[in-house]
Amino acid sequence: MVGIIEVAQHAGVSTATVSRALNGKANVSARAREQVLKSARELGYVASSSAYTLATGKTKNIGVVMPFVDRWFFSSVLEGAVNALVNRGYDVTLYSLSGGKDNRARIFDELVLRKRVDGVLTVGVKISEAELAKLTELEKPIIGVGGPIPGTRTIAIDDEGAGRLATSHLISLGHTKVGMISGSPVTEMDFHQPHLRRTGYQEALLDANLSFDPQWEAQGDFTVGGGYFAAKQLFGNPQNAPTAIFCASDEMGFGAIQAARDLGLRVPQDVSVIGIDGHPLGEFYGLSTVDQSVQQQGAKAANTLVDILESNDPKAQENFESITFWPIDLVVRSSTARRTL
């Protein structure tokens, strides 16, 4: 196996220079770094992770913590993060909290006490004060995706604003009977996205001086099946059914479109439907949506975390509270149209 001695001989530099160049240290000339990297590629040199860890105290491994791995939002954030980390030369250790409180405690003990990771990226998980204290004590930087976390950098969309934008789009098309498929209490999770999106929906109605009818709201579980069942309840009374529905997720929007079609309703001629997410199947269904570029959020979080870890400024690696609001975009497709009498 090729080692740094062979790389040094091939590049015509010292082994110390090879080590500094391969580890991204600043005290190497651009010419020497380029020659070392070229020699390493030509010789097929692969760095030893154990040697790197012994020399630097770093693992080049990021821990990703999320409540689920089998739901579209979380798997999409994960995909974006993993692609970015692989491109930056980092490994990923995935931790799922689906096992409950005991599993969560065990996971954070492994992350902290066994020191397996250099940093932590959380998705839809609100770190507790105790968990944050452990990670901060061992100088583990943290990035969160999904909502604000006290004492931690985070990336999130304005869920309330997204709900308001989606509902306002329906109102702008002349709809006055606007319903919503919101989340159930069990879907609230750590950052209360379903509640915030519902609040945005109600704010848009108030701004337009429209009444809120409890019969025009049903609860779903953020799945296609949940949206299908909820939409059928909304359409159950044809004399007082909404002419437009805002769904708190795209997947529930897909279910609502299918429910309308099964009941003989035309989308969008009889009922308009809009969601939130930017799900890739949105184009297939023709679903209008508020796109939050989920994979890009994961990539941004991962790259920010690596930038922190590779910074020469020790203060940059300290955890502090800040939130970056991720931009959202209204994408209008064929599922929404102007209300016709």
Any overview of this molecule?
- It is elongated and about 85 Å long.
- Helix 1 (4-11) crosses helix 2, helix 2 crosses helix 3 and helix 5 packs parallel to helix 13 (294-309).
- The strands form 2 sheets. It has a 6-stranded parallel beta sheet, with helices on both faces.
- It has helices at 4-11, 15-22, 30-43, 49-56, 72-87, 101-113, 129-137, 159-172, 193-207, 224-234, 250-262, 282-285, 294-309; strands at residues 61-66, 91-96, 119-123, 142-145, 153-156, 178-183, 217-220, 244-247, 272-277, 288-291, 322-325, 329-331.
- With 341 residues, it is α/β, with parallel strands linked by helices.
- The protein is 44% helix and 16% strand.
- The protein is built from 13 helices and 12 strands.
- The chain starts with a helix and ends in a 10-residue tail after the last strand.
- Strand 8 (244-247), helix 11 (250-262) and strand 9 form a beta-alpha-beta unit.
What is shown here, in short?
The chain has 341 residues and is of the alpha/beta class. It has 13 helices and 12 strands.
Structural class: alpha/beta
C-alpha Rg (nearest Å): 25 Å
Query: Low-confidence parts, pLDDT < 50 over ≥5 residues?
Result: 50-56
User: How are helices and strands ordered from N to C?
Assistant: HHHHEHEHEHEEHEHEHEHEHEHEE
Percentage of helical residues? 40-55%
Mean pLDDT: 88
Q: Major beta sheet, specifics? A: 6 strands, parallel
Strand order of the largest sheet: 2-1-3-4-5-11
Q: Which strand-content bin applies to the residues?
A: 15-25%
Alpha-carbon distance between the termini? Answer: 76 Å
| Annotation field: number of helices | 13
In total, how many beta strands? Answer: 12
- General form: elongated
